[in-house]
From TrEMBL:
Transmembrane segments: none annotated. GO terms for cellular component: peroxisome. GO terms for biological process: fatty acid beta-oxidation using acyl-CoA oxidase. It comes from Pristionchus pacificus. Residues 293-454 form the Acyl-CoA oxidase C-alpha1 domain. This is Acyl-coenzyme A oxidase.
Length: 546
């Protein structure tokens, strides 16, 4: 199909289409081609997406004879692994590492929402190699990682701890006599739990463990850890691992568990771009405490775009269904109408479509911020690191929650048909709702944002605020009164002004309440007392960013 940019609906109308869909497309008030180019950041990107789509459609190994809905979990995992191998082997002309662009699009077309055993290899393992390795480690590990001789995952979450990283229990104790780290799982709750691809597939992992050297704990640090014999694929001596079984969704990924029994790795297997342990056990601290969070921030920025894509897919299904579904009469005797003509249906559908666009553009902004901060870190400038961590945490929380709620509303808008797995809603929902938990449970993320906001409020109050552009409104001193007199005449600037005024007012109200409680109880007790208000404040701040 050749694209004709002069056509307002870009040749979407094909013979045999439902006439109601054709009618809706012909009455579009905008040029779809221009819209696509705007949404996907350029004409060349849109053309490239078309090329990738045609490539996937023409590759026999990617065409499923049996829909995933009718397969067992074992069959889903097996098919996902096979397709992932074909996907990477046939990807010479596709940048699979570009998870903001064609890499994510290519994978979504081939694998869908069940993911596969190599998902974390590309999303988390490889970015950690790139972001946390020193030059020698990069030379040693990146080649085999890119060639998939190393098939990796990211093992951080434990059975007993997830969001509270400072309390992870797995240990890495340095032995200066042998210049090795001894990895150990001291308790049942220290078992690594959930890493994708760990159950059956991965042979190495980035493992987060509490670093002990010279008798002192230096907190969680990442380590490059071989898990399986490269010849037999059996676990190394001192390593126990396996699959954790079926999940609520995303069952194409073999999520697993991992236990260490005094398992030794070389000293140089600690990632040493920012922090180091010297041969004698001397610890060299990183220049900034949050430098090690780079991989998490990167993944959260990808998540925001991924969640926007899921909400957009659900909106397309719901809106198309509503265009072809006819039910009831508005004017008696005129015949049944498309359900999309009901205001109540529009009220359910259209805000979700708008949110999908807003989330997508937010993803582009967070990507740009991430790349800028990464570049600044390379020059020793850490000024925006805390802001990046707060923004990525908050947007991840708000976007994933709004997406999950939006998908459910769109499912309900499709009546009984939305309850069928054939509608795709169940798989979209179970995929999207996972984002409310992984890479940081949403309430915990909002509280992290709130802690950052309380620090900003304190700095503003004492006249020492140094806020980046993205949060500069917190220090504004205008009255906060709305400039809007009529919704028909308000400008974008008026709307932004009002959002900022509400967010600023809530930030300082929460700060004052917190300080008031701190006069009668400990700081931690006061924080817990105010936590609901703090979450609401953080949420409003992120809605302001959106």
């Amino acid at each position: 199909m050749n694209i004709n940019p002069t056509m307002p609906y870009a040749n979407l109308i094909q013979p045999g289409d439902n006439p109601d869909l054709t009618k809706e497309r012909k009455t579009a008030s905008f040029n779809l081609w221009k819209m696509q180019c705007f949404v996907y950041e350029g004409e060349e990107v849109v053309k490239r997406r078309k090329e990738i789509l045609e490539f996937v459609q023409s590759t026999p190994e990617f065409n499923d004879e049996i829909p995933a809905e009718f397969l067992s979990r074992e069959e889903v995992v097996d098919r996902g692994a096979r397709k992932a191998v074909v996907m990477t082997n046939k990807a010479d002309a596709i940048d699979t590492s570009d998870f903001f662009g064609e890499g994510m699009y290519y994978q979504s077309l081939v694998i869908g929402r069940d993911l596969h055993s190599m998902s974390l290899h590309y999303i988390m393992f490889m970015p950690t190699i790139q972001g946390q390795s020193d030059d020698d480690q990069m030379d040693e590990w990146m080649g085999p990682t890119a060639a998939r001789a190393f098939l990796g995952t990211f093992a951080q979450t434990e059975l007993g701890h997830g969001s509270n990283l400072t309390k992870l229990e797995a240990t890495a104790t340095y032995d200066p006599k042998t210049e090795e780290f001894v990895l150990h799982t001291p308790t049942l709750t220290a078992t690594k739990w959930w890493p994708g691809g760990l159950g059956k597939s991965c042979n190495v992992a980035v493992v987060m463990a509490q670093l002990y050297t010279n008798g002192q704990c230096k907190g969680p640090h990442p380590f490059f850890v071989p898990l399986r014999d490269p010849e037999t694929h059996m676990p190394m001596k001192g390593v126990t691992l396996g699959d954790i079984g079926p999940k609520f969704g995303i069952n194409g990924s073999d999520n697993g568990f991992l236990i260490f029994d005094h398992y030794r790795i070389p000293r140089r297997n600690m990632f040493m771009r920012f922090s180091k342990v010297l041969p004698d056990g001397t610890y060299v601290a990183p220049p900034h405490a949050k430098l090690g969070f780079g991989t998490m921030v990167f993944v959260r920025s990808i998540m925001i775009k991924d969640q926007a894509t899921q909400l957009g897919a659900a909106a397309v299904i719901g809106i198309r269904y509503s265009a072809v579904r006819r039910q009831g009469e508005i004017n008696e005797g005129a015949g049944e109408v498309q359900v999309i003509d009901y205001r109540t249906q529009q009220f359910r559908l259209l805000p979700q479509l708008a949110r999908a666009f807003a989330f997508l553009f937010a993803a582009y902004e967070i990507k740009t911020l991430y790349l800028n901060v990464t570049e600044q870190i390379g020059t020793g400038n850490m000024d925006l690191l805390a802001e990046l961590h707060a923004v990525s945490s908050g947007l991840k929380a708000v976007v994933s929650w709004e997406t999950a709620q939006g998908v459910e509303q769109l499912r309900l808008a499709c009546g009984g048909h939305g309850y069928s797995r054939a509608s795709a809603f169940p798989d979209i929902y179970t995929y999207a709702v996972g984002g409310c938990t992984y890479e940081g449970e949403n309430i915990v993320m909002l509280l992290q944002v709130a802690r950052f906001l309380m620090k900003c409020a304190k700095e503003v109050r004492i006249g020492n605020a140094k806020l980046a552009d993205i949060g500069a409104y917190i220090a504004k001193t205008d009255s906060g009164k709305s400039h809007i007199r009529s919704w028909r005449q308000c400008s974008d600037e008026d709307i932004i002004h009002d959002f900022e005024a509400v967010a600023r007012r809530m930030i300082f109200a929460s700060y004052d309440r917190l300080k008031s409680f701190e006069t009668t109880m400990t700081k931690k007790e006061a924080w817990n007392k105010c936590s609901i208000d703090l979450c609401k404040t953080a949420r409003v701040r992120e809605l302001c960013e959106l």
